[in-house]
Fold L-aspartate oxidase.
Amino acid sequence: MTDTPYDVLIIGSGAAGLTAALTLATKLKVLVLAKGKLTSGSTAWAQGGIAAVLDAGDTFEDHIRDTMVAGAGLNDRETVEFVISHAPEAIDRLCELGVPFNRESDHLHLTREGGHSHRRIVHVDDATGWAVQAALLKAAEENCNITLLPNQTCVELITGRHEERYSGSGRVWGAYALDTVSGTVVAHTARATIMASGGAGRVYQFSTAPRGATGDGIAMAWRAGARVSNMEMMQFHPTCLYNLEIKNFLITEAVRGEGGHLLHPETGHRFMVDYDPERMELAPRDVVARAIDDQIKRYGLDYVHLDISHQPPEFVMEHFPTIYDKLETLGIDMTKEPIPVVPAQHYTCGGIVIDLAGRTDLPGLYAAGECTESGLHGANRLASNSLLECFVFGDAAARDILARWDNFEAVPPIRAWDESRVTDSDEEVVIKQNWTEIRRFMWNYVGIVRTTKRLERAAHRIKLLHTEVEDYYGHFTVTTDLVELRNLLQCADLIVQSALKRHESRGLHSILDYPETAPLPVDTVLVP
Ligand code: FAD
Ligand code: SIN
Protein backbone atom coordinates (compact mmCIF):
# COMPACT_ATOMS: atom_id res chain seq x y z
CA MET A 1 0.00 0.00 0.00
CA THR A 2 1.24 3.52 -0.71
CA ASP A 3 1.13 6.29 1.79
CA THR A 4 -0.59 9.27 0.18
CA PRO A 5 0.07 12.78 1.47
CA TYR A 6 -3.64 13.59 1.42
CA ASP A 7 -6.57 11.70 2.89
CA VAL A 8 -9.25 13.19 0.66
CA LEU A 9 -9.10 14.62 -2.86
CA ILE A 10 -11.67 17.26 -3.81
CA ILE A 11 -12.09 18.12 -7.49
CA GLY A 12 -13.37 21.70 -7.54
CA SER A 13 -12.80 24.85 -5.51
CA GLY A 14 -16.30 26.35 -5.74
CA ALA A 15 -18.98 26.50 -3.05
CA ALA A 16 -19.42 22.71 -2.86
CA GLY A 17 -15.73 21.78 -2.88
CA LEU A 18 -14.58 24.36 -0.35
CA THR A 19 -17.48 23.71 2.01
CA ALA A 20 -16.55 20.02 2.03
CA ALA A 21 -12.87 20.87 2.53
CA LEU A 22 -13.54 23.06 5.57
CA THR A 23 -15.61 20.36 7.30
CA LEU A 24 -13.08 17.61 6.49
CA ALA A 25 -10.10 19.67 7.59
CA THR A 26 -11.19 19.44 11.22
CA LYS A 27 -9.60 15.94 11.16
CA LEU A 28 -8.17 15.04 7.74
CA LYS A 29 -5.63 16.29 5.19
CA VAL A 30 -7.38 17.55 2.07
CA LEU A 31 -6.17 18.39 -1.44
CA VAL A 32 -8.45 20.68 -3.49
CA LEU A 33 -7.88 20.91 -7.25
CA ALA A 34 -9.15 23.55 -9.67
CA LYS A 35 -9.01 23.76 -13.43
CA GLY A 36 -7.32 27.09 -14.02
CA LYS A 37 -7.74 29.63 -11.23
CA LEU A 38 -9.25 28.77 -7.85
CA THR A 39 -12.06 31.25 -8.63
CA SER A 40 -12.81 29.84 -12.08
CA GLY A 41 -16.13 28.09 -11.28
CA SER A 42 -19.69 29.42 -11.39
CA THR A 43 -19.72 30.21 -7.67
CA ALA A 44 -17.79 33.44 -8.14
CA TRP A 45 -20.32 34.56 -10.78
CA ALA A 46 -23.47 34.09 -8.76
CA GLN A 47 -25.51 37.26 -8.48
CA GLY A 48 -28.91 36.92 -6.86
CA GLY A 49 -28.15 35.11 -3.60
CA ILE A 50 -28.99 32.12 -1.44
CA ALA A 51 -32.50 30.97 -0.50
CA ALA A 52 -33.28 30.25 3.16
CA VAL A 53 -36.29 30.57 5.44
CA LEU A 54 -35.27 33.40 7.76
CA ASP A 55 -38.35 35.57 7.96
CA ALA A 56 -40.92 35.08 10.72
CA GLY A 57 -43.76 35.02 8.15
CA ASP A 58 -42.07 32.32 6.06
CA THR A 59 -42.03 28.55 6.70
CA PHE A 60 -39.98 25.50 5.62
CA GLU A 61 -43.19 24.07 4.20
CA ASP A 62 -43.61 27.11 1.91
CA HIS A 63 -40.01 26.86 0.68
CA ILE A 64 -40.50 23.11 0.09
CA ARG A 65 -43.73 23.74 -1.82
CA ASP A 66 -42.16 26.46 -4.00
CA THR A 67 -39.20 24.16 -4.77
CA MET A 68 -41.50 21.32 -5.79
CA VAL A 69 -43.82 23.53 -7.83
CA ALA A 70 -40.81 24.87 -9.78
CA GLY A 71 -39.46 21.31 -10.08
CA ALA A 72 -42.75 20.16 -11.65
CA GLY A 73 -43.10 17.25 -9.23
CA LEU A 74 -39.85 15.52 -10.24
CA ASN A 75 -38.08 16.49 -6.98
CA ASP A 76 -37.39 13.98 -4.25
CA ARG A 77 -39.38 15.25 -1.27
CA GLU A 78 -36.93 13.82 1.29
CA THR A 79 -34.00 15.63 -0.34
CA VAL A 80 -35.96 18.87 -0.59
CA GLU A 81 -36.82 18.71 3.13
CA PHE A 82 -33.22 17.85 4.01
CA VAL A 83 -31.73 20.79 2.12
CA ILE A 84 -34.32 23.39 3.09
CA SER A 85 -34.25 22.52 6.77
CA HIS A 86 -30.44 22.88 6.80
CA ALA A 87 -30.49 26.26 5.02
CA PRO A 88 -30.56 28.58 8.08
CA GLU A 89 -27.50 26.87 9.63
CA ALA A 90 -25.66 27.07 6.28
CA ILE A 91 -26.27 30.84 6.25
CA ASP A 92 -25.08 31.07 9.88
CA ARG A 93 -21.81 29.34 8.91
CA LEU A 94 -21.29 31.78 6.04
CA CYS A 95 -21.91 34.71 8.39
CA GLU A 96 -19.29 33.22 10.75
CA LEU A 97 -16.86 33.06 7.83
CA GLY A 98 -17.45 36.77 7.32
CA VAL A 99 -19.67 36.90 4.24
CA PRO A 100 -20.97 40.50 4.36
CA PHE A 101 -24.64 39.84 3.57
CA ASN A 102 -26.75 42.96 3.13
CA ARG A 103 -28.52 43.90 6.33
CA GLU A 104 -31.57 45.95 7.21
CA SER A 105 -31.32 47.23 10.78
CA ASP A 106 -30.78 44.08 12.93
CA HIS A 107 -31.60 41.39 10.34
CA LEU A 108 -30.45 40.16 6.95
CA HIS A 109 -32.06 41.86 3.94
CA LEU A 110 -34.12 39.38 1.94
CA THR A 111 -34.75 39.87 -1.75
CA ARG A 112 -37.23 38.02 -3.93
CA GLU A 113 -36.86 35.90 -7.07
CA GLY A 114 -39.14 34.00 -9.45
CA GLY A 115 -41.08 31.05 -8.04
CA HIS A 116 -40.63 32.13 -4.39
CA SER A 117 -43.81 32.90 -2.47
CA HIS A 118 -41.84 34.95 0.10
CA ARG A 119 -38.82 37.21 0.27
CA ARG A 120 -36.15 34.69 1.29
CA ILE A 121 -32.95 35.39 -0.66
CA VAL A 122 -29.94 36.58 1.34
CA HIS A 123 -27.45 38.43 -0.82
CA VAL A 124 -24.40 40.64 -1.04
CA ASP A 125 -25.69 43.38 -3.35
CA ASP A 126 -25.89 41.73 -6.80
CA ALA A 127 -22.52 39.94 -6.49
CA THR A 128 -23.23 37.32 -3.82
CA GLY A 129 -21.10 34.61 -5.40
CA TRP A 130 -17.93 36.65 -5.39
CA ALA A 131 -18.28 37.42 -1.67
CA VAL A 132 -19.03 33.77 -0.84
CA GLN A 133 -16.13 32.47 -2.94
CA ALA A 134 -13.74 34.97 -1.33
CA ALA A 135 -14.79 34.06 2.24
CA LEU A 136 -14.55 30.29 1.61
CA LEU A 137 -11.16 30.65 -0.08
CA LYS A 138 -9.78 32.80 2.73
CA ALA A 139 -10.84 30.23 5.32
CA ALA A 140 -9.37 27.38 3.25
CA GLU A 141 -6.09 29.23 2.68
CA GLU A 142 -5.75 29.81 6.40
CA ASN A 143 -6.33 26.12 7.25
CA CYS A 144 -3.11 24.08 7.44
CA ASN A 145 -4.99 20.84 6.67
CA ILE A 146 -6.09 22.15 3.26
CA THR A 147 -3.85 22.38 0.20
CA LEU A 148 -5.25 24.32 -2.75
CA LEU A 149 -3.82 23.48 -6.16
CA PRO A 150 -4.93 25.49 -9.20
CA ASN A 151 -4.10 24.69 -12.88
CA GLN A 152 -4.96 21.00 -12.57
CA THR A 153 -7.25 19.67 -15.29
CA CYS A 154 -8.50 16.30 -14.08
CA VAL A 155 -8.57 13.93 -16.99
CA GLU A 156 -9.92 10.69 -15.54
CA LEU A 157 -10.82 9.16 -12.18
CA ILE A 158 -8.42 6.52 -10.88
CA THR A 159 -10.24 3.23 -10.32
CA GLY A 160 -9.43 -0.45 -9.91
CA ARG A 161 -8.32 -0.70 -13.53
CA HIS A 162 -5.47 1.73 -12.84
CA GLU A 163 -4.05 -0.28 -9.94
CA GLU A 164 -0.62 -1.80 -10.57
CA ARG A 165 -2.10 -5.16 -9.66
CA TYR A 166 -5.38 -4.83 -11.55
CA SER A 167 -8.20 -5.51 -9.10
CA GLY A 168 -11.06 -4.63 -11.42
CA SER A 169 -12.84 -3.02 -8.47
CA GLY A 170 -14.97 0.06 -9.10
CA ARG A 171 -13.40 1.79 -6.12
CA VAL A 172 -12.16 5.32 -6.79
CA TRP A 173 -8.66 6.25 -5.61
CA GLY A 174 -8.38 9.86 -6.79
CA ALA A 175 -7.78 11.27 -10.25
CA TYR A 176 -5.19 11.80 -12.97
CA ALA A 177 -4.79 15.52 -13.63
CA LEU A 178 -2.95 17.49 -16.27
CA ASP A 179 -0.76 20.06 -14.57
CA THR A 180 -1.16 22.84 -17.12
CA VAL A 181 2.00 24.61 -15.94
CA SER A 182 4.40 21.66 -16.32
CA GLY A 183 2.36 19.91 -19.02
CA THR A 184 2.57 16.54 -17.25
CA VAL A 185 -0.21 14.28 -16.02
CA VAL A 186 0.00 13.50 -12.30
CA ALA A 187 -1.84 10.83 -10.28
CA HIS A 188 -3.46 12.54 -7.24
CA THR A 189 -4.40 9.59 -5.05
CA ALA A 190 -6.56 9.58 -1.92
CA ARG A 191 -8.71 7.20 0.10
CA ALA A 192 -11.81 9.24 -0.68
CA THR A 193 -12.63 11.61 -3.55
CA ILE A 194 -15.32 14.27 -3.76
CA MET A 195 -16.42 15.44 -7.19
CA ALA A 196 -17.42 19.12 -6.97
CA SER A 197 -16.66 20.14 -10.53
CA GLY A 198 -19.75 22.18 -11.40
CA GLY A 199 -22.09 22.04 -14.38
CA ALA A 200 -21.99 21.47 -18.13
CA GLY A 201 -23.46 24.77 -19.34
CA ARG A 202 -20.83 25.33 -21.99
CA VAL A 203 -22.30 22.50 -24.02
CA TYR A 204 -24.60 25.26 -25.34
CA GLN A 205 -23.60 28.13 -27.62
CA PHE A 206 -25.10 30.73 -25.29
CA SER A 207 -24.62 30.21 -21.57
CA THR A 208 -24.19 32.38 -18.49
CA ALA A 209 -21.72 29.81 -17.13
CA PRO A 210 -17.96 30.40 -17.16
CA ARG A 211 -15.64 28.92 -19.80
CA GLY A 212 -14.71 25.86 -17.71
CA ALA A 213 -18.29 24.60 -17.18
CA THR A 214 -17.76 21.66 -19.50
CA GLY A 215 -19.26 18.88 -17.40
CA ASP A 216 -15.88 17.22 -16.75
CA GLY A 217 -16.91 15.63 -13.45
CA ILE A 218 -20.19 14.28 -14.80
CA ALA A 219 -18.37 12.75 -17.77
CA MET A 220 -15.53 11.33 -15.63
CA ALA A 221 -17.94 9.76 -13.12
CA TRP A 222 -20.04 8.31 -15.94
CA ARG A 223 -16.99 6.77 -17.60
CA ALA A 224 -15.93 5.32 -14.24
CA GLY A 225 -19.34 3.62 -13.91
CA ALA A 226 -21.60 5.97 -11.92
CA ARG A 227 -25.24 6.50 -12.87
CA VAL A 228 -26.26 9.91 -14.21
CA SER A 229 -29.80 11.19 -14.13
CA ASN A 230 -32.16 13.92 -15.45
CA MET A 231 -29.59 15.40 -17.83
CA GLU A 232 -32.33 16.65 -20.18
CA MET A 233 -33.24 19.21 -17.49
CA MET A 234 -30.94 22.00 -18.64
CA GLN A 235 -32.07 25.31 -17.21
CA PHE A 236 -32.24 28.42 -19.38
CA HIS A 237 -32.17 31.71 -17.49
CA PRO A 238 -34.72 34.13 -18.94
CA THR A 239 -32.59 37.26 -18.76
CA CYS A 240 -29.06 37.23 -20.13
CA LEU A 241 -27.90 40.57 -21.56
CA TYR A 242 -28.31 40.77 -25.35
CA ASN A 243 -25.07 42.20 -26.67
CA LEU A 244 -23.15 41.32 -29.81
CA GLU A 245 -19.80 41.27 -27.98
CA ILE A 246 -20.62 40.07 -24.46
CA LYS A 247 -22.66 36.89 -24.69
CA ASN A 248 -22.84 35.67 -21.10
CA PHE A 249 -23.63 38.57 -18.76
CA LEU A 250 -26.52 37.66 -16.47
CA ILE A 251 -29.16 40.17 -15.40
CA THR A 252 -30.20 38.73 -12.07
CA GLU A 253 -33.69 37.48 -11.47
CA ALA A 254 -33.75 39.84 -8.49
CA VAL A 255 -34.31 42.68 -11.03
CA ARG A 256 -37.72 41.11 -11.69
CA GLY A 257 -38.02 40.35 -7.97
CA GLU A 258 -37.65 44.05 -7.23
CA GLY A 259 -40.31 45.03 -9.77
CA GLY A 260 -38.76 44.71 -13.26
CA HIS A 261 -41.19 44.20 -16.17
CA LEU A 262 -40.68 42.19 -19.35
CA LEU A 263 -41.82 44.15 -22.39
CA HIS A 264 -42.17 43.62 -26.13
CA PRO A 265 -39.39 45.92 -27.46
CA GLU A 266 -41.59 47.53 -30.14
CA THR A 267 -45.09 47.70 -28.63
CA GLY A 268 -44.10 47.92 -24.96
CA HIS A 269 -46.67 45.18 -24.19
CA ARG A 270 -46.04 43.47 -20.81
CA PHE A 271 -46.33 40.06 -22.42
CA MET A 272 -46.14 37.79 -19.34
CA VAL A 273 -49.84 38.58 -18.89
CA ASP A 274 -50.46 36.30 -21.91
CA TYR A 275 -48.50 33.37 -20.45
CA ASP A 276 -48.87 33.43 -16.66
CA PRO A 277 -51.24 36.26 -15.65
CA GLU A 278 -51.06 35.43 -11.96
CA ARG A 279 -47.31 35.12 -11.40
CA MET A 280 -46.27 37.34 -14.34
CA GLU A 281 -42.48 38.00 -14.33
CA LEU A 282 -42.09 36.00 -11.11
CA ALA A 283 -43.25 32.70 -12.57
CA PRO A 284 -40.60 29.92 -12.41
CA ARG A 285 -37.72 30.20 -14.86
CA ASP A 286 -38.86 27.58 -17.34
CA VAL A 287 -42.18 29.42 -17.80
CA VAL A 288 -40.57 32.86 -18.25
CA ALA A 289 -37.77 31.57 -20.53
CA ARG A 290 -40.30 29.78 -22.76
CA ALA A 291 -42.47 32.91 -22.93
CA ILE A 292 -39.48 35.03 -24.05
CA ASP A 293 -38.44 32.34 -26.55
CA ASP A 294 -41.97 32.34 -27.93
CA GLN A 295 -42.05 36.15 -28.27
CA ILE A 296 -38.68 36.15 -30.04
CA LYS A 297 -39.74 33.41 -32.48
CA ARG A 298 -43.30 34.69 -33.01
CA TYR A 299 -42.31 38.29 -33.78
CA GLY A 300 -38.85 37.66 -35.28
CA LEU A 301 -37.19 39.67 -32.48
CA ASP A 302 -33.52 39.69 -31.48
CA TYR A 303 -34.41 40.28 -27.81
CA VAL A 304 -37.10 41.50 -25.41
CA HIS A 305 -36.87 44.34 -22.89
CA LEU A 306 -36.42 44.08 -19.14
CA ASP A 307 -37.44 47.40 -17.61
CA ILE A 308 -36.94 48.59 -14.04
CA SER A 309 -36.67 52.29 -14.89
CA HIS A 310 -40.00 52.98 -13.13
CA GLN A 311 -38.23 52.43 -9.77
CA PRO A 312 -36.35 55.40 -8.24
CA PRO A 313 -32.77 55.64 -9.64
CA GLU A 314 -31.18 55.41 -6.19
CA PHE A 315 -33.15 52.20 -5.45
CA VAL A 316 -31.89 50.62 -8.69
CA MET A 317 -28.27 51.68 -8.11
CA GLU A 318 -28.32 50.56 -4.49
CA HIS A 319 -29.74 47.10 -5.28
CA PHE A 320 -27.84 46.39 -8.49
CA PRO A 321 -24.51 48.23 -8.38
CA THR A 322 -22.57 45.61 -10.39
CA ILE A 323 -25.14 45.40 -13.16
CA TYR A 324 -25.60 49.17 -13.23
CA ASP A 325 -21.84 49.72 -13.63
CA LYS A 326 -21.47 47.04 -16.29
CA LEU A 327 -24.39 48.36 -18.34
CA GLU A 328 -23.12 51.91 -18.01
CA THR A 329 -19.86 50.87 -19.72
CA LEU A 330 -22.02 49.59 -22.58
CA GLY A 331 -23.98 52.83 -22.85
CA ILE A 332 -27.16 51.55 -21.14
CA ASP A 333 -28.56 53.49 -18.17
CA MET A 334 -30.89 50.99 -16.49
CA THR A 335 -32.40 53.73 -14.29
CA LYS A 336 -33.74 55.43 -17.43
CA GLU A 337 -34.10 52.80 -20.14
CA PRO A 338 -34.92 49.11 -20.60
CA ILE A 339 -32.26 46.38 -20.87
CA PRO A 340 -32.25 44.11 -23.97
CA VAL A 341 -32.32 40.47 -22.79
CA VAL A 342 -32.48 36.93 -24.19
CA PRO A 343 -32.62 33.50 -22.51
CA ALA A 344 -29.34 31.58 -22.18
CA GLN A 345 -28.35 28.23 -20.68
CA HIS A 346 -27.72 28.76 -16.99
CA TYR A 347 -27.76 25.62 -14.86
CA THR A 348 -27.40 21.83 -15.13
CA CYS A 349 -30.22 20.31 -13.04
CA GLY A 350 -29.21 16.70 -13.77
CA GLY A 351 -25.92 14.98 -13.00
CA ILE A 352 -24.22 12.25 -10.98
CA VAL A 353 -26.77 10.39 -8.84
CA ILE A 354 -26.07 10.88 -5.11
CA ASP A 355 -27.81 9.98 -1.88
CA LEU A 356 -28.38 12.25 1.14
CA ALA A 357 -24.78 11.75 2.27
CA GLY A 358 -23.39 12.72 -1.15
CA ARG A 359 -22.43 9.10 -1.94
CA THR A 360 -22.33 8.06 -5.60
CA ASP A 361 -22.64 4.50 -6.92
CA LEU A 362 -18.85 4.08 -6.76
CA PRO A 363 -17.15 3.22 -3.46
CA GLY A 364 -14.78 6.02 -2.46
CA LEU A 365 -16.47 8.60 -4.72
CA TYR A 366 -18.72 11.32 -3.31
CA ALA A 367 -20.17 14.27 -5.22
CA ALA A 368 -21.73 17.63 -4.34
CA GLY A 369 -23.04 20.75 -6.05
CA GLU A 370 -23.99 21.40 -9.65
CA CYS A 371 -22.40 18.20 -11.00
CA THR A 372 -24.96 16.11 -9.08
CA GLU A 373 -28.56 14.97 -9.23
CA SER A 374 -29.54 14.91 -5.59
CA GLY A 375 -33.30 15.11 -6.16
CA LEU A 376 -33.50 18.73 -4.98
CA HIS A 377 -34.26 20.49 -8.25
CA GLY A 378 -36.47 18.04 -10.12
CA ALA A 379 -37.44 19.27 -13.56
CA ASN A 380 -36.47 22.90 -12.91
CA ARG A 381 -34.34 24.49 -10.22
CA LEU A 382 -35.91 27.18 -8.05
CA ALA A 383 -33.85 30.38 -8.08
CA SER A 384 -31.07 30.59 -5.47
CA ASN A 385 -31.46 26.96 -4.38
CA SER A 386 -28.20 26.01 -6.06
CA LEU A 387 -25.60 27.60 -3.82
CA LEU A 388 -27.67 26.29 -0.95
CA GLU A 389 -27.38 22.74 -2.30
CA CYS A 390 -23.58 23.18 -2.52
CA PHE A 391 -23.30 24.15 1.17
CA VAL A 392 -25.63 21.43 2.43
CA PHE A 393 -24.26 18.55 0.34
CA GLY A 394 -20.60 19.69 0.56
CA ASP A 395 -20.97 19.48 4.32
CA ALA A 396 -23.01 16.24 4.26
CA ALA A 397 -20.42 14.43 2.10
CA ALA A 398 -17.60 15.56 4.38
CA ARG A 399 -19.46 14.46 7.51
CA ASP A 400 -20.15 11.04 6.03
CA ILE A 401 -16.46 10.57 5.19
CA LEU A 402 -15.46 11.60 8.71
CA ALA A 403 -18.01 9.24 10.25
CA ARG A 404 -16.82 6.26 8.18
CA TRP A 405 -13.13 7.11 8.04
CA ASP A 406 -11.95 3.90 9.69
CA ASN A 407 -13.49 1.89 6.84
CA PHE A 408 -11.61 3.74 4.08
CA GLU A 409 -8.82 1.45 2.86
CA ALA A 410 -5.29 2.64 2.10
CA VAL A 411 -4.55 3.35 -1.57
CA PRO A 412 -2.88 0.46 -3.47
CA PRO A 413 0.03 1.17 -5.88
CA ILE A 414 -1.35 3.04 -8.90
CA ARG A 415 0.07 3.04 -12.45
CA ALA A 416 1.58 6.27 -13.76
CA TRP A 417 -0.13 8.01 -16.69
CA ASP A 418 0.92 6.75 -20.11
CA GLU A 419 2.93 9.66 -21.58
CA SER A 420 3.81 7.91 -24.84
CA ARG A 421 1.31 9.86 -26.93
CA VAL A 422 2.49 12.57 -29.34
CA THR A 423 1.32 16.12 -29.90
CA ASP A 424 -0.09 16.85 -33.31
CA SER A 425 -0.56 20.58 -33.49
CA ASP A 426 -2.59 20.26 -36.72
CA GLU A 427 -5.36 18.73 -34.68
CA GLU A 428 -5.71 21.69 -32.33
CA VAL A 429 -7.70 23.64 -34.94
CA VAL A 430 -10.01 20.69 -35.41
CA ILE A 431 -10.56 20.45 -31.65
CA LYS A 432 -11.73 24.08 -31.58
CA GLN A 433 -14.00 23.53 -34.59
CA ASN A 434 -15.58 20.50 -32.95
CA TRP A 435 -16.21 22.51 -29.77
CA THR A 436 -18.06 25.13 -31.80
CA GLU A 437 -20.01 22.53 -33.76
CA ILE A 438 -21.28 20.77 -30.61
CA ARG A 439 -22.30 24.01 -28.95
CA ARG A 440 -24.19 25.17 -32.07
CA PHE A 441 -26.18 22.04 -32.71
CA MET A 442 -27.00 21.68 -29.01
CA TRP A 443 -28.39 25.23 -29.05
CA ASN A 444 -30.36 24.69 -32.25
CA TYR A 445 -31.58 21.11 -31.71
CA VAL A 446 -31.66 20.57 -27.94
CA GLY A 447 -32.71 24.03 -26.70
CA ILE A 448 -35.71 25.49 -24.91
CA VAL A 449 -38.31 23.79 -27.13
CA ARG A 450 -37.43 20.39 -28.63
CA THR A 451 -38.73 17.84 -31.15
CA THR A 452 -37.87 14.15 -31.48
CA LYS A 453 -36.56 14.74 -35.00
CA ARG A 454 -34.14 17.41 -33.85
CA LEU A 455 -32.97 15.31 -30.92
CA GLU A 456 -32.30 12.43 -33.32
CA ARG A 457 -30.31 14.76 -35.57
CA ALA A 458 -28.21 15.82 -32.61
CA ALA A 459 -27.71 12.16 -31.61
CA HIS A 460 -26.48 11.37 -35.12
CA ARG A 461 -23.91 14.17 -35.04
CA ILE A 462 -22.72 13.15 -31.60
CA LYS A 463 -22.11 9.62 -32.86
CA LEU A 464 -20.00 10.87 -35.78
CA LEU A 465 -17.98 13.21 -33.57
CA HIS A 466 -17.47 10.52 -30.95
CA THR A 467 -15.20 8.40 -33.19
CA GLU A 468 -13.15 11.45 -34.16
CA VAL A 469 -12.72 12.71 -30.59
CA GLU A 470 -11.82 9.29 -29.15
CA ASP A 471 -9.22 8.99 -31.92
CA TYR A 472 -7.56 12.30 -30.84
CA TYR A 473 -7.77 11.27 -27.22
CA GLY A 474 -6.21 7.87 -27.90
CA HIS A 475 -3.29 9.23 -29.91
CA PHE A 476 -2.38 12.74 -28.86
CA THR A 477 -0.98 14.36 -25.74
CA VAL A 478 -3.87 15.57 -23.57
CA THR A 479 -4.54 19.29 -23.41
CA THR A 480 -7.29 21.06 -21.47
CA ASP A 481 -9.09 21.78 -24.76
CA LEU A 482 -9.08 18.12 -25.71
CA VAL A 483 -10.19 16.98 -22.24
CA GLU A 484 -13.04 19.51 -22.32
CA LEU A 485 -14.08 18.61 -25.85
CA ARG A 486 -14.29 14.94 -24.89
CA ASN A 487 -16.35 15.76 -21.80
CA LEU A 488 -18.63 18.22 -23.59
CA LEU A 489 -19.39 15.57 -26.17
CA GLN A 490 -20.05 13.01 -23.44
CA CYS A 491 -22.44 15.41 -21.69
CA ALA A 492 -24.15 16.32 -24.97
CA ASP A 493 -24.76 12.61 -25.48
CA LEU A 494 -26.15 12.18 -21.94
CA ILE A 495 -28.47 15.19 -22.43
CA VAL A 496 -29.78 13.93 -25.77
CA GLN A 497 -30.18 10.32 -24.59
CA SER A 498 -32.12 11.50 -21.53
CA ALA A 499 -34.27 13.84 -23.62
CA LEU A 500 -35.11 11.03 -26.04
CA LYS A 501 -36.18 8.85 -23.10
CA ARG A 502 -38.65 11.41 -21.72
CA HIS A 503 -41.91 11.09 -23.63
CA GLU A 504 -43.65 14.02 -21.99
CA SER A 505 -43.20 17.77 -21.48
CA ARG A 506 -42.26 18.56 -17.90
CA GLY A 507 -40.46 21.56 -16.42
CA LEU A 508 -37.44 22.38 -18.54
CA HIS A 509 -38.05 19.57 -21.01
CA SER A 510 -40.58 20.92 -23.50
CA ILE A 511 -41.01 18.67 -26.55
CA LEU A 512 -43.59 19.31 -29.27
CA ASP A 513 -44.19 15.60 -29.96
CA TYR A 514 -45.25 15.04 -26.34
CA PRO A 515 -46.88 18.29 -25.14
CA GLU A 516 -48.64 16.72 -22.13
CA THR A 517 -47.19 16.00 -18.70
CA ALA A 518 -47.40 12.31 -17.76
CA PRO A 519 -49.36 11.52 -14.57
CA LEU A 520 -46.37 9.90 -12.83
CA PRO A 521 -43.05 11.76 -12.51
CA VAL A 522 -40.15 9.41 -13.39
CA ASP A 523 -36.40 10.16 -13.48
CA THR A 524 -34.47 9.48 -16.69
CA VAL A 525 -31.66 7.50 -15.08
CA LEU A 526 -28.86 6.43 -17.43
CA VAL A 527 -26.76 3.42 -16.41
CA PRO A 528 -23.21 3.13 -17.87
P1 FAD B 1 -18.40 25.64 -9.36
O1 FAD B 1 -18.49 26.83 -8.51
O2 FAD B 1 -18.77 25.80 -10.80
O3 FAD B 1 -16.91 25.13 -9.24
C1 FAD B 1 -16.44 24.09 -10.07
C2 FAD B 1 -15.00 23.82 -9.70
O4 FAD B 1 -14.57 22.63 -10.35
C3 FAD B 1 -14.05 24.92 -10.15
O5 FAD B 1 -13.07 25.13 -9.17
C4 FAD B 1 -13.41 24.32 -11.39
O6 FAD B 1 -12.11 24.83 -11.64
C5 FAD B 1 -13.34 22.86 -10.98
N1 FAD B 1 -13.23 21.92 -12.11
C6 FAD B 1 -14.10 21.74 -13.13
N2 FAD B 1 -13.62 20.80 -13.97
C7 FAD B 1 -12.44 20.39 -13.46
C8 FAD B 1 -11.46 19.48 -13.88
N3 FAD B 1 -11.56 18.77 -15.02
N4 FAD B 1 -10.33 19.33 -13.13
C9 FAD B 1 -10.17 20.04 -11.98
N5 FAD B 1 -11.07 20.93 -11.53
C10 FAD B 1 -12.19 21.09 -12.27
N6 FAD B 1 -27.03 29.92 -7.80
C11 FAD B 1 -27.63 30.41 -6.71
O7 FAD B 1 -28.03 29.65 -5.83
N7 FAD B 1 -27.80 31.76 -6.57
C12 FAD B 1 -27.38 32.66 -7.51
O8 FAD B 1 -27.53 33.85 -7.34
C13 FAD B 1 -26.76 32.17 -8.67
N8 FAD B 1 -26.37 33.00 -9.66
C14 FAD B 1 -25.68 32.51 -10.73
C15 FAD B 1 -25.20 33.38 -11.69
C16 FAD B 1 -24.45 32.91 -12.76
C17 FAD B 1 -23.92 33.86 -13.79
C18 FAD B 1 -24.20 31.51 -12.87
C19 FAD B 1 -23.40 30.95 -14.02
C20 FAD B 1 -24.71 30.63 -11.93
C21 FAD B 1 -25.45 31.12 -10.86
N9 FAD B 1 -25.95 30.25 -9.87
C22 FAD B 1 -26.58 30.77 -8.78
C23 FAD B 1 -25.62 28.83 -9.90
C24 FAD B 1 -24.46 28.58 -8.92
O9 FAD B 1 -23.55 29.64 -9.01
C25 FAD B 1 -23.73 27.29 -9.25
O10 FAD B 1 -24.63 26.25 -9.44
C26 FAD B 1 -22.80 26.92 -8.11
O11 FAD B 1 -21.93 27.99 -7.84
C27 FAD B 1 -21.99 25.69 -8.45
O12 FAD B 1 -21.03 25.50 -7.47
P2 FAD B 1 -20.11 24.21 -7.51
O13 FAD B 1 -19.26 24.28 -6.31
O14 FAD B 1 -20.94 23.01 -7.74
O15 FAD B 1 -19.23 24.40 -8.83
C1 SIN C 1 -29.95 35.15 -10.60
O1 SIN C 1 -29.39 35.97 -9.86
O2 SIN C 1 -30.88 35.40 -11.35
C2 SIN C 1 -29.44 33.76 -10.58
C3 SIN C 1 -29.99 33.10 -9.40
C4 SIN C 1 -29.86 31.62 -9.56
O3 SIN C 1 -29.32 31.12 -10.56
O4 SIN C 1 -30.32 30.92 -8.66
Summary: The radius of gyration is 22 Å. The chain has three domains: 8-232+349-407, 237-345, 429-513. The CA atoms of residues 130 and 192 lie 28 Å apart.
